[in-house]
Amino acid sequence: MFKLNVIVLISCFGLTACGYKPLYGVDSSGRNISSKLNAISVDPQSNRQDQLIRNEILSSIGSNSNSPIYSLSFKSNANDADTVQAFNADTLRKSYQLNVKFDLVRKANGKSVLKGTTFAHVSYDKTAAPFSDYQAKISAQERAAKQVGSDIRTRLAAYFASR
Question: Cβ(133)–Cβ(126) under 8 Å?
């Protein structure tokens, strides 16, 4: 057991020598990633899908700053694609595809500091019941928004961790 502890300790020293720093650690100024993410405001959205993405981002970054330093804007594009079709031309499985371009801008000078794209492909079943089909599509939209929002949050955290 002692040997294992020594090996782990030596490995940790090796990681610090290569410039590794944990994503959710505290930087030299005493601030952590959460406090930097709190300084982001997310632009209001005009449609349901974009509002779902915005809500996911806000709930994961905890944006509650009275004077945000950054502004996050994004534009999404979504569509349905048939995945599995039966011989009688009925679609049995669909794929909801969501593509998002995002831009993080420093409010002081209006310059973009991080741009990127992300996507989510979520499949759902199509049945002969219209209400079930509608609910399945809504659920797919919510799952896609959750995936995209989570990916954007991770990219923002990685950006702030590298600064």
Answer: yes
Pairing mode, strands 70-85 and 91-106 = antiparallel
Q: For residue 12, what are the contacts with CB-CB under 8 A and spacing of at least 6?
A: none
pTM, 2 dp: 0.78
> Mean pLDDT of residues grouped by 10 in the chain (163 residues)?
60 56 57 83 92 94 79 94 66 88 95 96 87 91 96 93 81
CATH of 33-161, one of 1.10.10.60, 3.40.50.40, 3.30.70.1350, 3.30.160.150: 3.30.160.150
DSSP state of 21: -
Cα angle for residues 52, 58, 59 (degrees, 5° grid):
90
